[in-house]
Please model this.
Amino acid sequence: MAAVCGSDDSEISTALAFGEAEECTQNAKTREDTIVKISDCLSEQVPEIDDWVAYVDLKSDGQAYLYQTYDLETEEVYKDGAGSEYLGEYYSVHVSEMWEDHSVSWSTFYVSVNFDKVLWKDMVGLADSEFEVYTFIRGVEKFVVLSKP
Model:
């Protein structure tokens, strides 16, 4: 870096700032790529979400829309809570109905870090259980039919 920046402190600061900006740009690109992969996997394995988009628009007269929030920090997922069967590292995606003054949570999905599996989080859980249940969506262990709202 000294050969590029020279010995002047302002040149060094400029080079460092440029390096940080370039790193930020790379990080943003990586985040964007990850979101696209998560979204593509979810759309492929849970095509019902496209129907939900149209449903919310129709039923709300265009006043609401379906919104997906992506958590890019992966988390360990266990079948029935910590201590049970380990299912792997997943990104979470929260699907909500967004209105001007409030939102309504619809579902939470987990997309594997390899972008090949989707889990659906059963928000209700098992009767008399403190555990949250995760179910594979398509063709892995179980097939869950998600009813259209």
